[in-house]
Amino acid sequence: MGLSSADVRAALERHARPDKAEGMRRYLKSELPCLGVPVPTARRVAAELFLDQPASSRLALERLVRPLWDDAVFREERFVAINVLRLRPHRALIDAGARRLLEHLVRTGAWWDLVDELASHVVRAGLENDPDAMGRVVRAWASSGELWLQRAALVSQVVRGDETDVELLGFAIEHALDGKDFFLRKGIGWAMRSLARKRPAVVRDWLQRWKGQLSPLSVREAEKGLRRDGAGSASGRGSKRARSNGT
C-alpha cells in the first residue's frame, strides 16, 4: 500500500492541537499521549490517505491495520486505524474471518473510546455482512468472561435499530448480568436504551425478566429510552454516537 504508521503520524501532526492534547489524554485516561486531534479529523485523515488505495482482501486489510494500531505513538493513530476499517471498500471485508484482528484490537485497545467505536461500527458491519458466523463470534465474546470482549458484544448493535438481532443482544446482556464492572453495567443500559427506540416492548420485557439482577445504572439507562412510555415510543437520543455514550 505504500503508507506507513509514520505517514499517518505526519498527517495527524499537521492537525495537532497542543492546547487540547493534555486535556484529551486526561479525559480518555490514555497511556498513549494525544495530539489533540478531534475524532472527525482523524476520520477524514483515514479517508484522505487510504480511500484511493483500499486493501483488496481481508488479509491485506489486516496487514495494513495491524501496524497502524500496534506501532501507534499517539492515541489518534488508533482512531485512524479504526476508521480505515470503516471505509466503504473495507466494510465489505469484515466478517467472521476477521475475528483474529478484531479480538486483537479489542484486547489491546481495552478502553471505552476505542472498543465502542470498533464494536458499534466495525463489528456491526461484520454482523450485517455475515450474520450467522459473526453472531457466533459475538456470542463467544459475550460468554468469554473478558470485560472488553463482553463490552464489544453488548454495544455491537447500538446503531442497528430495526435490524437488531434481539436474541443475540439478549444473550449478551444475560451473560453480563453478574458483571460488577461499570463498563458492563453501562453497556447493558446503553444497549437497552438504544433498542427501546424501536422495540420498547422487548426492553420492558427484559426489565421485568431480569428485575433484581440488573444494576440500578443499567435500569436507569434503559428507562431513558422508555421515557415517553405512554405512547410506547422511545426517546433514547444519542445512540448513533459511540464515543458519547462510553462513560
Task: Output the keywords.
single chain, 247 residues, 14 helices, mainly alpha
Describe what this molecule looks like in 3D.
The protein is mainly α. Helix content is 62%, strand content 0%. It is built from 14 helices and no strands. Helix 3 (39-50) packs across helix 5 (75-86) and helix 12 (182-196) runs antiparallel to helix 13. The protein is globular and about 55 Å long. Residues 229-244 have low confidence and may be disordered.
Any chance you could write out the topology, listing elements then pairs?
Elements: H1 5-13, H2 18-28, H3 39-50, H4 58-70, H5 75-86, H6 88-91, H7 99-109, H8 112-129, H9 131-142, H10 147-155, H11 166-174, H12 182-196, H13 200-209, H14 216-224
Helix pairs in contact: 3-5, 4-5, 5-8, 7-8, 8-9, 8-10, 9-10, 9-11, 10-12, 12-13, 12-14
**SSE topology string:** HHHHHHHHHHHHHH
Count of DSSP strands: 0
Overall pLDDT confidence = 92
What is the first-to-last residue Cα distance?
36 Å
**What general outline do the C-alpha atoms trace?**
globular
Low-confidence stretches: 229-244
The DSSP helix count reads: 14
Strand content: under 5%
Radius of gyration: 18 Å
Helix content: 55-70%
Largest beta-sheet characterization = none
Class by helix and strand content? Answer: mainly alpha
Summarize the structure.
The protein has helices at 5-13, 18-28, 39-50, 58-70, 75-86, 88-91, 99-109, 112-129, 131-142, 147-155, 166-174, 182-196, 200-209, 216-224. The protein is mainly alpha-helical and 247 residues long.
